[in-house]
Write a structure and sequence with these properties.
Strand content: 25-35%
Largest sheet: 6 strands, mixed
Helix content: 25-40%
Order of helices and strands: HHEEEHEHEE
Length: about 150
């Protein structure tokens, strides 16, 4: 369970601790950067409820949303946590009347690709040498989810 303040609300400091925990203490942002990122009005953060096992960070870019970071701890995968986080983002995107959600995923990350497809994401492109993992480059698929279809004239 995430920590609560006196008003029974989760604090940014509590969320940062969860972020660090999920990233196995290999946090990508220090606490100040995390706070600034969290408070930026164009960013959307979603954390798994009642446990510290997953989060999703996305940003609003005009009429679209881009997933920047999406992580579920290895021992909590394939238990619905990732699907729940993505569904929260989809719901929020529709409320905000955005058109599409975009993400990149390693071409070798079959479980993630299958999850995205199951939820309705479609492959729309490929980015060569997108990831650099331990000195080795990997390609990524660019995927999108249509939130709102525009009527053409």
């Amino acid at each position: 369970m995430l920590g609560k303040n006196v008003n029974n609300e989760v604090t940014i400091a509590d969320l940062y601790k969860t972020y660090v925990f999920i990233n196995l203490n290999k946090n990508k942002m220090d606490e100040k950067s995390f706070r600034q990122c969290f408070l930026k009005s164009t960013n959307l953060f979603f954390f798994s409820k009642c446990n510290k096992v997953g989060y999703l960070l996305a940003r609003i870019i005009d009429i679209d949303i881009e997933i920047i970071e999406f992580k579920v701890q290895r021992n909590s995968r394939r238990k619905g946590v990732g699907a729940h986080l993505l569904k929260q983002l989809i719901r929020k995107g529709r409320i905000l009347k955005k058109e599409k959600i975009f993400l990149e995923v390693s071409v070798e990350n079959f479980p993630a690709i299958n999850l995205y497809k199951k939820l309705g994401f479609k492959k729309i492109g490929k980015r060569k040498n997108y990831y650099n993992i331990k000195g080795e480059t990997k390609d990524a698929f660019l995927m999108q989810f249509i939130l709102l279809k525009r009527l053409s004239n």
